[in-house]
Amino acid sequence: MIRLHAVPGSRSFRVHWLLAEMGLEPEIENYRIADGSLDTDSYRDMNPAGRVPALEIDGRTLIESGAIIEYLCETRPEHGLAPLPGDVERAEFLVWVHYSETVATCIQNLNLQQVFLPDAAMRSPTVIGIETRRLARSLKPLERHLGGQDFLLASGFSAADIMFGFGVEAAFHYVHAAKFPALSAYSERLAQRPAYQTALAAQGPDTIYRKDFYEVPDG
Ligand SMILES: N[C@@H](CCC(=O)N[C@@H](CS)C(=O)NCC(=O)O)C(=O)O
Hints:
CATH class of the largest domain: Mainly Alpha
Shape: globular
Radius of gyration: 17 Å
Number of strands: 4
Bound molecules: glutathione
Helix content: 40-55%
Largest sheet: 4 strands, mixed
Structural class: alpha+beta
C-alpha cells in the first residue's frame, strides 16, 4: 500500500508526480491548508510540523518532499530518474533538488501574505515586495540555465525537474511569466509529460490559489 497525504496544488504534487513517473498509483488522503485538517494529533504523529506531504510506503511514513524524492529514486533506481552516488551529475542533482526549496520558501511566504491571511489589512506590502524580488532573484539563474538546455541536468529529465518544476508553476502567480521565457517554455514542457497529467488529474483541483496572478499591493 502506498498512501500520499496531500493538499492539491501543494508540494505533495512533487511526490504524486514522481510516483506517476514510476508507474505507481498512491491512495490519496486530501487535506486543506488553514481549515485545521492538518492540525490534529493523528496527522502530527505522521508529520510533527503539520505539513504535507507525508508518504506511507515500504512500511514507513516519510516526510519532507526532497527526502521522499531522493528515497524513491534510490530505492527504485530502475526508473533512472536520478543520478545515484558516484555519478558525475550527482552533486548537481542534489543542488537543484535543494535549491527548489529556496524557491519554494519564497512562494510559501507569498502564499501566506497574499492568499492565507484572512484580512487584506493584515498584509505587508513591504514584505510582499521583498519576497517577490527574492523570488525573481532566485529564478534568474534558472532562466539562464534553462535557456541553454531542456532540463536541469544536461543528461535529460530527472527528479530534480519534478522538485523545481512544481515551484516554477506556482511562482508565476507572483512573477510575470513573460519575464522568464525560458522558464515558461520549460514549465510547459514539463506539463506535457504524461505522468504530470496523470498526477494532476488524480490530485483534484488546486485548493490554494483563487487568482491567476497576485500583484504587489501599493503601500
Ligand atoms: N520542506 C517541506 C515543506 C512542507 C510544507 O511547508 N508544505 C506546505 C504545503 S506546500 C504545508 O503543508 N503547509 C501547511 C501549513 O503551513 O500550515 C517539504 O518539502 O515537504
